Amino acid sequence: MRAPDTGEGVVMKYANTREAAQSVADLLWKLEIQLDEAFATSGELLASLPRARHTAQLPAIVGQQAFELFSQAVVAIGAARGHTVAGHRIIEKVGKQIGYETSFGDEQPKPAAAPMGVDGGHLRVAA
What we know:
By secondary structure, the protein is mainly alpha-helical. The chain is built from two helices and no strands. The chain starts with 16 loop residues before the first helix and ends in a 30-residue tail after the last helix.
């Protein structure tokens, strides 16, 4: 294993590289799980609001502002999840650079780019 070059021709050596890398990997995994849980819970909350309003026989305007705000929270969680995935890719590259690779059971190769909300599966290139 070769320590990273600082850019000034000096190779830095880290005594606890493996321990530090594992700590980061554990926290990254925890964050990804928590974001997925938050995304799922917020979706359940959004789905429950109109049902609760209907059950209580309240007019549509009741709770609309809360619904809009919770919807914005879902979008923010989705963006945070996307940023986390992008950060994960960078951390994986850094791990390879320092000679440390870890896996949490996901051995499948990741796509080069994550789709951003558009299903392009039906598109074809015409020559």
